[in-house]
Amino acid sequence: IADLLAEVDLKRTAINIVSKSGDTIEPMSAFLFLRDRLIKKVGRQKHAVQVIATTDSRRGTLRTIADREGYRTLPVPDDIGGRWSALTPVGLFPVASAGVTVTGLLSGAKQSRDQFLSTPVSKNEVLKFAGLHYLAYTKQKRNITVLMPYAARLDMFGPWFRQLWAESLGKRQSRVGQVVNVGLTPVAALGATDQHSQIQLYNHGPADKLITFIEVRNPRSDYVIPKSFSDLPGVSYFGGQSFSQLLHVEREATAHALMKNGKPNGTIFIPEISPETIGGLMMFFMLATSVMGELLDINVYDQPGVEGGKQAILALLKKESL
Predict the structure, then answer these.
(1) pLDDT of 308
(2) Do residues 252 and 119 both lie within one domain?
(3) pTM of the model
(4) Burial status of residue 7 (CB atoms within 10 A of its CB: 0-12, 13-18, 19 or more)
(5) Are 22 and 65 within 8 A, CB to CB?
(6) Based on the domain organization, do 121 and 238 belong to the same domain?
(7) Same domain, 60 and 123
(8) CB 211 within 8 A of CB 169
(9) What confidence tens digit (pLDDT) does each residue in 117-141 have?
(10) Which residues sit opposite 52 in a β-bridge?
(11) Are residues 238 and 280 in the same domain?
(12) Residue 184: inside a domain, yes or no?
């Protein structure tokens, strides 16, 4: 927060507070602090025009605050939880504010969904992805899912997937109430950076992982590495190569080494990084997560294991015993 306040002029800044209930401590505490700073800058009467509340359309603490203060609001759909909400106003408003084409994002997501619904089982990539992970988990005890894009612009895609996969699939009970204690642990990695921090483990460590790479075929920009120091074999051999070709070779070589060590992996290829491809990729993983829930017979849309921690935080803040 200190770094943010050092960079922005609050008189020219809008605050978008996102909370379905308005009871989530982390976003609401930050909002209350920033709201106070905003009021001190522009006054109580004027601050409301600079606040947008993305929340439940009818009830909840944030809805009450928004109605009382006169904030403009965007709805969080009733039946969509936080990790599934990127393609609702929760995610679309910040994306639009950043200048990204929202229609492209939604178009890509719709195309991915339509393709899933219309493609036969034998050729359905979503079903293949989910099916392979289910078999690897249940038959080979591979309970760790690694997602490793070879693109710096996808560095935040892994953390998004991490929450989706972990919170959806980590469940104590099946849908009929049987204790099953299932779940696959997601790991967010980034190529080629994490070749130098994680690949040693993946190659020579336990056989408990299934690794998925993402490669971008046509990057937005590309540069050729200059041919320099031709007398030095340690650097001369990659002169004249483009950075995209270098990333391609590194991903391919890493995948090959993993296979030689008996560590299964696969690659998802996308043509470019654009609103359409990102929307399609997000829908792909949301569908795959839903299919995994069907295979495991669990509810992927709730998170009962989170509530205990929330209640403990509340008790400690109120100076109550746990």
Answers:
(1) 83
(2) yes
(3) 0.92
(4) exposed
(5) yes
(6) yes
(7) no
(8) no
(9) 999 999 999 999 999 999 999 999 9
(10) 16, 72
(11) yes
(12) yes
- 282 within domain boundaries: yes
Task: Report yes or no on 150 lying in a domain.
Answer: yes
% of residues, the chain, pLDDT over 90: 87
What is the dihedral angle through the alpha carbons of 311, 317, 321, 322, rounded to the nearest 10 degrees? 30
Statement to judge: residues 108 and 204 lie in one domain: yes
Share of the chain above pLDDT 70, in %: 100
Q: Residue 67: which CATH number?
A: 3.40.50.10490
With beta carbons less than 8 A apart as the criterion, state whether 151 and 193 touch: no
Whether pLDDT at 72 is above 90: yes
**Is position 316 within any domain?**
no
Q: Is a pLDDT exceeding 90 seen at residue 79?
A: no
55 and 107 in a common domain: no
The set of long-range contacts for 42-46, using a CB threshold of 8 Å and a minimum separation of 24, is 42/10, 42/11
| Same domain, yes or no: 109 and 54 | no
**Same domain, residue pair 45 and 162:** no
CB 130 within 8 A of CB 144: no
- Residue 221 pLDDT level (bands cut at 50, 70, 90): confident
Residue 51 has pLDDT above 90, yes or no: yes
pLDDT tens per residue, range 170-212: 999 999 999 999 999 999 999 999 999 999 999 999 999 999 9
For residues 127 and 284, the answer to whether their CB atoms sit within 8 Å is no
Average pLDDT over residues 235-259: 94
Segments forming the whole domain that contains residue 19: 2-76
Residue 54 parent element (H or E): strand 51-55
- 268 backbone dihedrals φ, ψ, rounded to 5°: -100, 125
Nearest alpha carbon to residue 291 among 182, 170, 139, 130:
130
Domain tally for the chain?
Answer: 2
* Contact call for residues 146 and 210 (beta carbons, < 8 A): yes
**Positions marked catalytic:** 167, 196, 310
CA 155 to CA 74: how far, in whole Å? 28
